[in-house]
Write a structure and sequence with these properties.
Number of strands: 21
Number of helices: 21
Number of domains: 3
Largest sheet: 8 strands, mixed, barrel
Strand order of the largest sheet: 1-2-3-4-5-6-7-8
CATH class of the largest domain: Alpha Beta
Radius of gyration: 30 Å
Helix content: 40-55%
CATH superfamily of the largest domain: EAL domain
């Protein structure tokens, strides 16, 4: 019977193959690793991958099959010319960890055979399979961390293990299930879910991989939310041909270049603020090195630890060593290798953030952790430096000063450069509907001539405050173009409720008209009009101050031209004429609005 099973599964494993799909740094396009995906299972006589593993489990042969598959994966992975620089993500059936035949030591033999580093291996635990609270399971996870294997939670959000698996496994990576990624650019609820997961993961020093990214819009959404890596058809389909795999994917660089984003300033600020603390490398350094390092750095109460791939593992605090160092025999115990102490024995995780993150996001990651020394900064997942709380706050303050330069000095609303950044960000998201709203005071010059610039500025401030209030209420980006011209745009890339948005604009118009009445003298207020000189130089009667709004709904197929050599946006002549026409129509309309869809 055993011989029959061995022959059956050796034949099945011979029939199957593995395809590799790249996992790519979302900011740089550098390949971070490959997920190994089982292929040709149908040729081996199975209807699905799940059926393949279920059959092996039912035959009580799952461990043996898994070991044969691992060897096949590792042998193929070792043929990639740059395999030493990337990781292999291997899906492990959760049931294997509770089998009596399970022997973690067998992994070391495989890795040595193919010349692979332990840190190159990442086991993916699927949330789709039940995660059993079994002593063998925890032994596997503990041993994996001790031997510097990586752990990823796959299909996060799709199964029933949920936060318990996240808590128990203490993973290095979370892979967001493709259900949440598909259509994320058009689905505000999915964005909310992913933002919550990403923030939680980063707080726990876990990197986030977005699976199933197929469109530029999904890539952009994942980038804005703060995912660290992407995987999907947009980058490359799974392939069994390793000759087609790349160490760098230019498609990502092209997508990032097209993204008009305000991150270069943040990156420069962080780079200028970084403090490089000399790290210890695990497992190269021993306890003697740790004690010696603390002796050389008497002013530091912690030391950073990285692995051989320069990936940060955490810190070791001097306070955790004091009970050994200052006891009569404690230091000897630490130095005695037979006691099993190493760097990993005292390691504590602290927040980790990518150098490309906005400073506000990095600060948020820091503040969500209690009693931590600061944030470890990485680039392409490699250690770059350290930011203490003081340095991080100083960098944020410097950024705020820079941002203030782009604010309108009167209303403190975003000025033209930030408005252009908002518009540029919106128009690049194809297959999405956008809306741009232009506000313009009616007969503002006669009002200024009659009541003076002080009350004119007061009217502008009143409208600015109203726009801020409604911007928060309806999630609008609001800006001050200059003078009595203002701008608003819908933040979310969803199909917009036109009627709801028109009602919001109508409320803004009404609120302004009611608020500025107090600026007039009593006689003009009671008459409902005032006398002043118009633009034509003639004296006439003018209605009390009001504002008109031009609403431009831009469809998904509209082409808007941008000149890469010039700052801001260059709209084509037809679009410019549309905006001018809308403003004119709005001033003469009964409700103060004009609407156009293109």
């Amino acid at each position: 019977m055993v011989q029959h099973l061995a022959e059956k599964w050796q034949q099945a494993v011979t029939e199957v193959d593995f395809a590799f799909q790249p996992i790519v740094n979302l900011y740089t396009g550098v390949c971070f690793g490959f997920e190994a995906l089982l292929r040709n299972f149908d040729e081996a006589g199975f209807g699905s991958i799940q059926a393949f593993f279920d059959s092996a489990f039912n035959d009580d042969y799952l461990f043996q099959v898994d070991m044969m598959l691992r060897e096949k994966v590792f042998a193929k992975f070792a043929q990639i010319p740059f395999h030493q620089k990337v990781k292999i993500f291997y899906n492990i059936d959760n049931r294997i960890m509770i089998l009596p035949a399970f022997e973690p030591q067998s992994m070391c033999d495989l890795l040595e055979r193919y010349g692979l580093k332990k840190s190159s291996i990442c086991f993916e635990l699927s949330e789709r399979h039940e995660f059993q609270s079994h002593v063998s399971t925890f032994n596997f996870l503990r041993l994996a961390r001790k031997r510097t294997y990586k752990i990823a939670v796959d299909d996060f959000g799709a199964g029933f293990a949920g936060l318990q698996l996240l808590y128990r496994s203490e993973p290095d990576y979370i892979k967001i299930d493709r259900f949440f990624i598909t259509g994320i650019a058009e689905d505000a609820r999915k964005r909310l879910f992913i933002e919550t997961i990403v923030n939680m993961a980063h707080t726990l020093a876990i990197k986030v991989i977005a699976e199933g990214v197929e469109t530029a819009e999904e890539f952009s959404a994942c980038r804005q939310i703060g995912c660290d890596y992407v995987q999907g058809y947009l980058i490359q389909r799974p392939t069994t041909q390793i000759s087609t795999l790349n160490s760098y994917y230019e498609e990502v660089a092209v997508l990032n270049k097209k993204e008009r984003r305000n991150k270069s300033t943040d990156k420069n600020l962080i780079e200028n603020s970084l403090v490089y603390l000399e790290p210890l490398v695990a497992p190269n350094h021993q306890m003697e090195d740790l004690i010696e390092a603390f002796g050389k750095n008497k002013d530091s109460n912690f030391l950073l630890v990285i692995n051989q791939d320069e990936e940060p593992l955490g810190i070791i605090r001097d306070v955790d060593l004091k009970e050994y160092v200052y006891s009569p025999y404690g230091k000897d115990i630490l130095m005695n290798r037979s006691m099993g102490f190493n760097l990993m024995s005292f390691l504590k995780k602290i927040p980790v953030a990518d150098i490309n993150n906005k400073i506000e996001k990095t600060l948020a990651i820091f503040t969500q952790n209690n009693n931590v020394e600061g944030v470890i900064i990485t680039e392409d997942n490699r250690y770059r430096g350290f930011l203490s709380a003081t340095v991080l706050l100083n960098a944020l303050h410097e950024k705020n000063i820079a941002v203030a330069r782009d604010l309108n000095p009167l209303t403190k609303l975003p000025g033209n450069s930030l408005i252009n950044e908002f518009i540029a960000s919106g128009i690049r998201k194809n297959r999405c509907h956008k809306v741009f709203i232009y506000f313009d005071f009616n007969d503002f010059k006669p009002f200024n001539d009659k009541y003076g610039f002080r009350l004119g500025d007061r009217a502008i401030l009143i409208f600015g405050d109203i726009l801020k209030e409604y911007g928060v209420m309806y999630d609008l980006f609001v800006g001050h173009i200059g003078g009595d011209d203002f701008f608003a745009g819908k933040r979310e890339d969803t199909r917009l409720d036109h009627q709801g948005l028109q009602a919001a604009v109508s409320s803004i118009i009404t609120a302004f008209a009611e608020s500025v009445v107090s600026l007039y003298d009593q006689d003009d207020r009671e008459r409902g009009y005032y006398t002043s000189v118009g633009r034509d130089g003639k004296t006439g009667k003018f209605s009390l101050l009001s504002v008109s709004a031009a609403l431009l709904f831009v469809g998904s197929r509209t082409e808007i031209i941008e000149d890469e050599e010039l700052p801001g946006l260059i709209f084509d002549d037809d679009l410019g004429r549309m905006i001018a026409k809308l403003k004119k129509e709005a001033k003469s309309s009964a409700d103060g609005m004009a609407i156009m869809e293109i």
